Q: What sequence folds into this?
């Protein structure tokens, strides 16, 4: 009785989500297959042989510019239009840019000797910063008056162990 | 009969190297030497060892299964690989043809004449089959408020942003970084004339003798558009016209004749 009822239910009804619980595995599989078939039939494709894709080593170019290395189209001569002359140099040297950049690198603002001289004095000035005030004064005294009583001063400040 | 017809159509096949400097006709097929590693697919090492640069197939040539198909008549030109330009690292073939009709090409810098102002765009006559459009925003420093001062009849030096056979060509007067770099409206006076496209390329070639000789004469300014238009301006109308006449005559003069003509001028 129940089997009869099941066969009477339409396919579309059986495919609904809430009907899936009660189905046995065989009918479930059958339905799935049918569904897949319908989907694959709906997809249409061109009945052509497979295209063989080859990597091409040729680039098509419609312009003469890259072929012939043509110059910039605006020109000015003998200072008629200084702006354009500046532009000409700039645009026409684009190809030789790399060479120019190398030249720029070589040029230094400060020579090595000057750099060394500056560092020499710098070591002293910066070194002072990290010394304690007391030590700094000692340094200055040493520099200014060597002949005066620098030594006794230093000795005076030394730690003396108290005697019992 | 059939063979004769074929020959007339110009289906000659020849090696590309052998045809360099020769006249080629539309329909000719230029065969390229086989690439090492192109057919030897079993050897992956071989394909890696193939030259990195790709062959540039310039104007007048098209790719086809066998090699390059010629679409214009003229002299076949070739540049060896590694000759400076980065784009053509693998060498380049193109057809040097003599023509007067300009066909817009993306990236070409041309001189256009403003023919109309249609709302947001200007219409420019560039000598092609269709008028080019130029947006008012495609100028350096232009904003919606600050419109460029362009009138009908002005000459504009600009480059093509869009140029293909199916669409209306579009021009701009700025480069990719938004700078004008010489593009825009060309000055008020001066003289505009037209020469063949071949002569323009000759003049624009690096170390062009004609330009070098002219530059010794007197101060003047020159704008050369790839569409065959030349704009000249010098201090006086007479000087302008002398330059114009020399440039126009260059098309038909040998270099000796030109030197004679120039010597005559500089003597005066």
A:
């Amino acid at each position: 009785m129940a089997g009869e009822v099941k066969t009477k239910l339409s396919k579309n009804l059986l495919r609904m989500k809430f009907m899936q619980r009660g189905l046995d595995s065989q009918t479930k599989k059958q339905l799935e297959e049918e569904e897949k078939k319908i989907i694959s039939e709906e997809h249409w494709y061109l009945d052509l042989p497979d295209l063989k894709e080859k990597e091409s080593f040729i680039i098509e170019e419609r312009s003469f510019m890259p072929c012939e290395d043509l110059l910039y189209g605006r020109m000015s001569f003998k200072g008629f239009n200084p702006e354009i002359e500046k532009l000409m140099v700039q645009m026409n040297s684009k190809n030789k840019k790399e060479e120019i950049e190398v030249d720029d690198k070589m040029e230094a603002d400060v020579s090595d000797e000057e750099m060394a001289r500056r560092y020499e004095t710098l070591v002293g000035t910066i070194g002072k910063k990290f010394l304690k005030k007391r030590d700094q004064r000692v340094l200055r005294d040493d520099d200014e008056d060597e002949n005066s009583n620098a030594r006794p001063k230093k000795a005076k400040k030394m730690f003396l162990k108290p005697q019992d | 009969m059939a063979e004769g017809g074929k020959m007339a159509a110009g289906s000659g096949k020849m090696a590309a190297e052998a045809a360099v400097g020769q006249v080629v006709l539309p329909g000719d097929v230029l065969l390229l030497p086989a690439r090492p590693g192109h057919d030897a697919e079993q050897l992956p090492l071989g394909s890696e060892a193939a030259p990195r640069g790709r062959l540039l197939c310039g104007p007048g040539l098209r790719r086809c299964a066998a090699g390059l198909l010629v679409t214009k008549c003229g002299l076949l030109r070739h540049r060896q690989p590694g000759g400076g330009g980065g784009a053509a690292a693998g060498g380049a073939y193109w057809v040097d043809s003599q023509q007067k009709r300009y066909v817009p090409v993306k990236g070409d810098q041309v001189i256009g004449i403003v023919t109309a102002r249609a709302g947001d765009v200007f219409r420019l006559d560039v000598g092609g089959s269709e008028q080019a459009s130029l947006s008012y925003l495609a100028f350096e420093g232009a904003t919606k408020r600050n419109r460029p001062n362009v009138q009908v009849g002005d000459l504009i030096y600009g480059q093509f942003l869009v140029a293909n056979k199916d669409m209306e060509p579009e021009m701009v007067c700025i480069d990719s970084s938004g700078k004008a770099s010489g593009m825009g409206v060309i000055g008020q006076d001066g003289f505009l004339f037209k020469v063949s496209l071949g002569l323009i390329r000759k003049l624009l070639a690096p170390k062009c003798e004609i330009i070098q000789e002219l530059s010794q004469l007197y101060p003047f300014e020159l704008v050369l558009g790839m569409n065959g238009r030349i704009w000249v301006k010098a201090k006086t109308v007479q000087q302008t016209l002398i330059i114009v006449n020399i440039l126009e005559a260059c098309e038909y003069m040998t270099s000796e004749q030109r030197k004679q003509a120039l010597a005559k001028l500089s003597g005066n």
Q: What stands out?
A: Confidence is low (pLDDT under 50) at residues 1-10, 37-50 of chain B. Chain B touches chain A through 51 residues (CB under 8 Å). Residues 4 and 10 of chain B are 10 Å apart (CA to CA).
